[in-house]
Design goal:
This protein is mostly helical and 457 residues long. Helix content is 65%, strand content 4%. A five-stranded mixed sheet has the order 1-2-3-5-4, with helices on both faces. Helix 1 crosses helix 7, helix 1 packs across helix 11 and helix 12 packs antiparallel against helix 13. The two termini are 40 Å apart.
Length: 457
């Protein structure tokens, strides 16, 4: 997925790999964001038909994966949909997950966010500003700062101000059913998902899952949805095989990364020779520092599915993070060969090439980072590693310019202006970068002046 929006148009600097957790070595923290090409692609495949049915531009709606095992999903202004890992793991099948996504898309398409923010303007504005800054900081690699900001904004969507009314919930249900039907899919999954948690209706608010605190459930909603399902010509349509496979592999990957290794081995014992079992165990062995078994397991996967780019990506991650950066280059190159449109793969390979620290490898890293930035122009991690590459080539002007771009992408205007100013003298002969450095200075000055003027009133 290419992040496209203002303060969240960035990527973490922890991008070697498959699943990338923004909390890094801080597993006790409740929430963080995840970037993973495989999971993002699955979610996009599920989401885009629903957005088209809702008359929303796919390129204008961003998806974010929240590393939180509680069951929740929510939307924020700016057309952003957030899905907890707990929701993905709890959904029994793709149709249930699509039902929830369709419901969230309905909140955007129906304008519920705009009306809700008018009602709760005093609380809602500061919350979104804080959450936005926290997301930007986390995605750019400033993990601790981002988590601190988010904690101050009540962990994304925990405040009542983000809760929907029962009227808007019923409206979103019906719109979601229309989107599913218009895209030729069953609406049964959404009903089944709500039925699964019907007991939430009678629980006190503090005991409900976060999703049902923000999306109040009622038996009337379920009964009304069931009527719509019964009338749909797609009532009995089931998920396609590729969708089921994508979701089962996604679940295996999430469990491998997010659960304790011993728990993973219980869920996927050695007797489980499925792709999902070996995938989850590969990750669990790697996280348990058992490099031998991790490589044995991932090599078996590659042997049986040599055209799967995600297996090579995982092997590259395992090798790189086990201190074998030079050995990580080959599998990462193969991952890119099989999936050349994945910027996170290119950034991961660039890291390994930079670590090799040879003139040829640095030149290759620059090529891959520039390619990644063509796909994600405001990817903070790519700009950071590009600055490292130019520094290794003793090109300080370009290195400072890349840092200016990284700072600008996360809204750190003072730092962006400072590095852009320092870069200009070293950009003789680099006209495009010099013009862009001037643009960063002018825009930063204007925005900083606006902030200062607001602060005086």
């Amino acid at each position: 997925m290419i992040a496209r929006k203002r303060f969240i148009r960035v990527c973490m600097s922890y991008v070697i790999a498959g699943l990338i957790l923004a909390t890094g070595a801080m597993p006790a923290l409740a929430q963080s964001l995840i970037r993973d090409t495989e999971i993002e692609e699955m979610l996009r495949d599920f989401t885009d038909p629903l957005l088209r049915a809702a008359n929303l531009q796919s390129s204008s709606v961003d998806l974010y994966i929240v590393n939180d095992q509680s069951l929740n999903a929510f939307v924020t202004r700016g057309q952003n949909i957030f899905l907890h890992t707990g929701l993905i793991l709890e959904a029994d099948n793709p149709n249930q997950l699509k039902g929830v996504i369709a419901h969230e898309a309905a909140h955007i398409a129906s304008g519920h966010l705009a009306r809700r923010s008018q009602t709760n303007r005093s609380a809602y504005g500061p919350l979104l500003i804080a959450a936005g800054l926290g997301i930007a900081a986390i995605l750019a690699g400033e993990t601790q700062a981002g988590v601190t900001i988010l904690a101050g904004s009540q962990q994304f969507a925990a405040l009542d101000v983000l809760a929907h009314s029962r009227v808007s919930e019923a409206s979103a249900d019906q719109a979601a059913a229309r989107y599913l039907e218009k895209s030729g899919q069953s609406t049964a999954g959404l009903v089944a998902f709500f039925e699964k948690f019907r007991a939430q209706e009678v629980l006190s608010k503090s005991r409900r899952y976060p999703y049902f605190r923000g999306h109040p459930l009622s038996y009337q909603r379920i009964d009304k949805l069931r009527e719509i399902v019964d009338e749909s010509p797609y009532r009995d349509r089931t998920d396609e095989d590729w969708e089921l496979k994508a979701m089962s592999m996604t679940k295996a990957k999430l469990i491998g990364f997010l659960y304790a290794p011993q728990t993973v081995f219980t869920i996927y014992p050695e007797t489980d020779n499925s792709e999902e079992g070996r995938y989850a165990r590969s990750v669990a062995y790697y996280r348990a520092a058992d490099l031998k078994n991790a490589l044995r397991s991932i090599d078996l996967l590659i042997e049986n599915a040599p055209d799967n780019p995600y297996f090579y990506e995982l092997k590259g991650q395992i090798l790189y993070e086990s201190g074998k950066g030079a050995e990580a280059i080959a599998p990462l190159k193969q991952a890119i060969f099989l999936k050349p449109d994945a910027p996170l793969f290119e950034i991961a390979l660039a890291q390994a090439l930079i670590e090799k620290d040879e003139p040829e490898s640095i030149d290759q890293a620059i090529i891959h980072l520039k390619s990644a930035l063509q796909k994600e122009p405001a990817n903070g991690a790519a700009w950071y590693y590009l600055s490292q590459s130019y520094d290794r080539k003793n090109e300080p002007g370009l290195a400072r310019y890349a840092i200016a771009e990284q700072a600008f992408s996360v809204g750190d205007l003072q730092r962006a202006r400072s590095f852009a100013t320092r870069a200009r003298e070293g950009l003789i002969g680099h006209k495009a970068q010099a013009r862009r450095a001037n643009d960063i200075i002018v825009i930063s000055d204007a925005q900083l002046a606006t902030r200062n003027n607001r602060g005086r009133h």
